[in-house]
Structures are given as C-alpha cells and as structure tokens.
Amino acid sequence: MTIDELIDERSNTELLDEFAKREIRRTILSAVAIPGYQVPFGSREMPVARGWGSGGLQVTLAAVHTDDIVKVIDQGDDDGVNAVNLRRLITTSTGSQETSVADEADIVQSRHRVPEDGLDESSILVLQVPVPEPLRGVERDMRELARMHAEADYSRMWVSLYEDKVRNGVITQTTGYPCLVNGRYVVATTPIPRWDIPRLHDAPFITLFGAGREKRIYAIPPYTEVEPLTFEDVPFEVEDADGAHCALCNSSESFLVSLPNSSTWLCSDTDWCRRNRKGNA
Amino acid sequence: MTTASTDRRFTVARLSVPAWMLKVEGLGKVYGPHDDRIVGSTGPEAGTAKSPINGSVVAAWNVSFAVAAGEALGIVGESGSGKSTVLRCLAGDTSSTTGSATIRLADGDVSLLDADAAKRRRLRIDTVSVVYQDPAEGLKLNVTAGGNIAEPLTAAGWRNFGKIRARASDLLSRTEVPLNRMDDLVRAFSGGMRQRVQIAKALANSPSVVLFDEPTTGLDASVAAGVLDLIRSLLEEHRIAAVVVSHDFSVIEMLTQRCLVMQHGRVVESALTDQLLEDPHHPYTQRLVAAARA
C-alpha cells in the first residue's frame, strides 16, 4: 500500500468501522426484539468522553444513513454546546444533513427530552443514557440484578417508591422514572422528565437508549406499552409549572423550565418554541 | 416402665394423623462425595458427622417428620447437630442432597426441594416464611419497618399504597411494634424490636409454614420472653405449621408440642415435648435435658 493510499484511507472520516456498525446494529435488533431488556455491546472509544453522550452517539452513528437528516438536542435545546458539537461530529463524519425541526429529522438524538412534536413512524429517537440500570439504587450486586430482571422480581423497586412516598408525602423521583415496558422489563427512562413518560407509551416512533460508559443498549419499539410504576391509589403526575407561561411564546402546554433565580419560564424545547411563536408548531 | 412405653406408642399413633401441612421424608444433606459406606461411617454411633473415609460432612441424614396446621415442631440439638441445615434446606437457602418435603395447600401439594430457584423464591413470598436468628438476614436495615413489610406484599402483587400501609400497621401492631416507629429505619431499632419486625414481615402474606431459626438466641432474657410469648400467641391465632430450631430447651418447651433431637446429623429421638423433657430416652437427650435443667 502506498503512502497516498494510506492518506486516502485516513481521510475516511467515519468514526465507526463497518464491523463496529454491524455489532451495534445487531445489538439494536436484539434490544428491539426484547423491549426494555438491556443488551450489552462493545462500546467503542468516541471523540467524546464517556458519560457525555458516547452511547447515544454510537447508536446514532450505527443507525444513520448518508441520506438521513439528524437533529441533536441537549435539554430540548438545539443550540447547547454539547448538542452543536455532537451534531457536527455526526454530520461531518457521516455526510448526513442536519435540522432543528423534529418533523424533518429521521433521527433525533437527545439528552433529557422527547421533542414536543414531529416524531412519527419514520422517526428514530436516540436517548443518551448515563445509568441504564433502574435497580441500581436498590441493589449493587450484578448477579442479583440479573436475577431480579430475569424473574421480573421488582418488589424492591416498589419498596423504594413506597419509602419515597412515606418520607416525602409524594413520589419525588423526577427524571428517569422507572417504567414497565411491554409488561415485562422495568427500564430507567433516564434522563427524561416525567412529563415525557406518557409520550413514550404506545408511541409511533422507536426509542433507542444508548449507555456508552455502561455498555448497554435497550429499546422501546413503536406502539409498545410503557407503564410508569404507580400505586393504584397514588396517581402518576407529571411536572406542573402551576399555570406558568413561556415568556417567549406564551405557551402553557409545553414542558417549561424556569431560568435560574427567576420567575421567568421558558419552553424546554427551543425549536418548538420558535415555531410556536410563528404560529406553526 | 410399661405405662411409659404404652404412652410412647400412643404418641406414635398420634403422629401419623394424615392432616399434615408440611411433610419431610428422608431429608439428607452431604457436603462432599458420598455413598452408603461414607454415610454409614458417620452419625451418633460413629460420634461424628465428618466421614473418616473421605472427609465428607453428612450434615443431616434421613430426617423425616410431619407438621399439622396450627402445630409447632421443635428441632433441638447442640451446635453442628444438623438442625439448622434441615431448616435451611426447607427454606431453600441451601439445596438438599436427598429426600423430599411437601407442603399441602388448598389447591394441591407443592414439592419444596425439587423446585428450581425461581419457584422457591416465589414460595418464600407467600407460602414458606423464615425468621432468622439475626434480623439483618431477614430484613433490610436501611429500609423502614413498614417498607420491609411492603416488600413481600408488593412481591405478591399488592399495588395499593393505602392497603399496603394498613396491612403493615396491622402486622406491626400485632407484633407489638409501636406504630410511631413504623416509618423509622430498622437500623435504628433494638434487637428485640428488629425481631418483632422480622416476625411481622414473615407473616405478611399469611404463609402456611413458618420456619424459626433460633428466634430468640440473640436477645436478652426478658426481651426473649416477650418475643416467645408473641410467637406462641401468633402460632395459636394463625393456622400455621411451624418448625422451631433451637439449642435452648426453654424455647422448645414454650413453643412446641412435639420435637426431634438431632445429634451428628441424625434424629436420635422424637417425642412429645413434655414427655421428652420428663423422660428422655436417648443418652444424648438425657445429657441435653440435664444440662438445660441444671
């Protein structure tokens, strides 16, 4: 091989080689086949640190096609530093196109949010997951965790919800609320807010969860039952901004976040907010 | 002597009544390779449970008994006699080498020993409960008293917070745990109160069989007496088949109607508890009773 050929080889900007993509795609297929089951995969080194979206990035890179259009958000924001950098990394290394409009996107990679609108049967939602194990808070022994999932023995998860309610009067767990998927596996819906949980239930789109540091991928296929663990007499409640409106678009229908040290509320989904102001959300 | 042996025959006849709820037949547990010769090289006559042939330990062998609903059977013996091994085999904490154990439920018989690990755990939720000597073994110390009771309830499918609370407070008041401690971590409880919480948890799903492993050994005398009183009244109140393992004759005397004496992994004597204490036949039982009465 000549130096020129080597240089040519190096100019191939793809971050994942074909073998890696194949391995991740196979993992995704397993994950879709067993909704909610955490499938191990050989998480590669990425040009972002583990814990900074490397799992979601690998899922996106394995699933994206050069013709695809990609949207990346961080906390609902397309212009966050992380979102911008990951989007650039994906589009420049794969040749895919970028957008901020969920409706136009084939793949949406996200940390913390499901976009307010625009996801349909042709969409793939990729979530970056810091802690894929929903039972991590109640058990540390890996063998015991494997057993609990295998036998669908989630009583200790229920006990932790019971304890939360007893101590605090309400169930305080906000992001990553544990959900039963397809009536079988409990998953961590990390790290989206409770607000987005009902939107995963029976959703037309596919949701892929990638945890790079923990080397796990799991999935919620389209039209799958997603049921937050809830006591019969303690209704599941989503976050409530108590009548607040977005200071920009005046919406009270979207997921709002407050500015630090201020009573000002803004839409978490910035692109939706922008379109809402123009009247086409 | 004639009357005594007549009495003993009468006892045997009573033991064979068919209304058993838990029946154990030929239970054996051997650590290490074994055959008839190796098992035969151990036991009370040999004076050891460890085979001189190959070093295998015959922790329990040929243990059989039946317990009726509402009855408590004691297993007594010194440390290492195999009594706890029998209990752990029944609880599913360890696998048995041979034998069978059957629980007779309303909807049919359930075999305990050949159930796989998952089935055993399910049986432990609502059919067989264990009260361990150390409450830390049966409870999560970093969980509240109510939460500990919520665990078997949610495992059995309870999903109503109010009903779980009501059931937990009912059980805790029956086991005489002050209700204002219900939402405190078990870690903050005294030994006696931890044991009461463990008993409440064991009763959560109204099990058919409860196994007690030295339930009061870690407690001081006055607290132990209170816990024993409690266990006795609960056993009378619920139609539970109980097995009580203890080295302490006063516990056996207070809780059980019949008992087995074990030595070196074998049952050396079985009789009504009063009779056994009054008129022990086997020399080992005589020594144990004499030691307890001293």
Q: How far do the termini of chain B sit from each other?
A: 25 Å
What is the subunit organization of this protein? Answer: heterodimer
Number of helices of chain A: 8
Number of strands of chain B: 10
Give the % helix of chain A: 25-40%
Order of SSEs of chain A: HHEHEHEEEHHEEHEEEEEH
Secondary-structure element sequence of chain B? HEHEEHEEHEHHHHEHEHEEHH
Give the strand content of chain A. 15-25%
Helix content of chain B: 40-55%
How far do the termini of chain A sit from each other? 54 Å
Low-confidence stretches of chain B: 1-13
Number of strands of chain A: 12
Largest interface comes to: A-B, 17 and 20 residues
Secondary structure tally, helices of chain B: 12
What is the C-alpha radius of gyration of chain B, as a whole number of Å? 19 Å
Please provide a brief summary of the model.
The complex is a heterodimer of chains A (281) and B (294). Chain A has 281 residues and is an alpha/beta fold.
Explained architecture:
The complex is a heterodimer of chains A (281) and B (294). Chain A contains eight helices and twelve strands. Chain A has two domains: 3-228, 3-Layer(aba) Sandwich (Rossmann fold); 243-281, no CATH class. Chain A has 281 residues and is of the alpha/beta class. In chain A, the strands form three sheets. Chain A has a seven-stranded mixed β-sheet. Chain A is globular, with a radius of gyration of 20 Å. Helix content of chain A is 30%, strand content 17%. Chain B has 294 residues and is of the alpha/beta class. Chain B has helices spanning 2-15, 36-40, 83-91, 117-126, 135-138, 145-155, 161-174, 191-202, 221-237, 249-255, 273-278, 283-293; strands at residues 20-31, 57-68, 72-76, 98-105, 108-111, 128-131, 209-213, 241-246, 258-263, 266-272. In chain B, the strands form two sheets. In chain B, strands 6-7-8-3-9-10 form a six-stranded mixed β-sheet, with helices on both faces. In chain B, helix 6 (145-155) packs parallel to helix 8 (191-202) and helix 7 (161-174) crosses helix 8. Chain B is globular. Residues 1-13 of chain B have low confidence and may be disordered. Chain A binds chain B through residues 150-151, 153-156, 158-159, 162-163, 165-167, 231-234, and chain B through 118, 121, 140, 143-144, 146-148, 150-152, 154-155, 159-164, 183.
